[in-house]
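User: Teach me something about this protein's shape.
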Amino acid sequence: MTCTVPSRLHRSELAVPASRSQFFAKAAASAADVVFLDLEDAVAPQLKDQARSQAIAALNDIDWGAKTLAVRVNGLDTPWALQDIVDVARHAPRLDLILLPKAGSAFDVQFVDQILTLIERETRRDKRTGIEVLIETARGVANVEAIAASSRRLEAMIFGVGDYTVDMRTYDPVFGTPSPRYAILTHGQGAAREHHWNDQWHFAMARIANACRANGLRPIDGPFTDYGDTEGFQACAQRAAALGFEGKWAIHPSQVGLANEAFSPTDEQLAWATRIRAMIDASNRQGQGAVGDDGVLVDMAHLKQANALAERQALIERQTGRRAP
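Assistant: First, the predicted structure itself:
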């Protein structure tokens, strides 16, 4: 069910507990591309109803500018999920996305899609509410391709490393960081042996990214909970970008700028794109499709890459009104 999703800038997605109304104005004033008000993990059970009401009021009363706004509802296996989806979609026309946690099957997304369809018919609302999902269980990763193709409302898939860590029973105390246990020793004896680290989340992340790109969705990396470790966050963001992700969660405002930078074209990349486009254009005018660039073959695939970088930069400037990051 490949389709064209709305063109949204999604370099950073800032998490804001819906029960903490004092954070709403700060989130609106932040540089985050996307803000989600959280009704799920960040809210105690006794505050669920209050948080829902506060989220709706915030969506309606605060000036969020051009930001994309999402609400993370409670999971479909909880007593709050249905009312979360219905009330927020019905009473908050500013809403852009429902963020569905623990998506485990295509049916989960299709169920939410049908609720949203009925509400839009009821309210006669022209604006279409999109869906983004958290892939944060072993079942979700196992079904990720079917989930990615499940609904025309689906726009993005997020790797929820926290609950995935729990579901996989790895018992890592800090979510999103590498584990020193996932390593091997090089050949040799004693001090001559080196500790070779690996990335224990590579399989899940690569599968999510591939499923997203196959279905026209945005792959987004999840939380890095050690928000005091700036270098660690940057390294994980760069790893995600290298795998094809186009954004990352920020669980603290200090991570927003880091995510925006990691998922924006660099000056070096933009200069390369400009040079490659000129080089291929000149080559084509001479009746050639490929050209050498300091010993490196440059052809039409490189032109596609250069055009993609230019389009990414244009989207950033169009939606933020300023150059990247």
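Now, about its shape. The chain is about 45% helix and 15% strand. The CA atoms of residues 282 and 288 lie 9 Å apart. If you'd like, I can walk through any region in more detail.
User: That's plenty for now, thanks!
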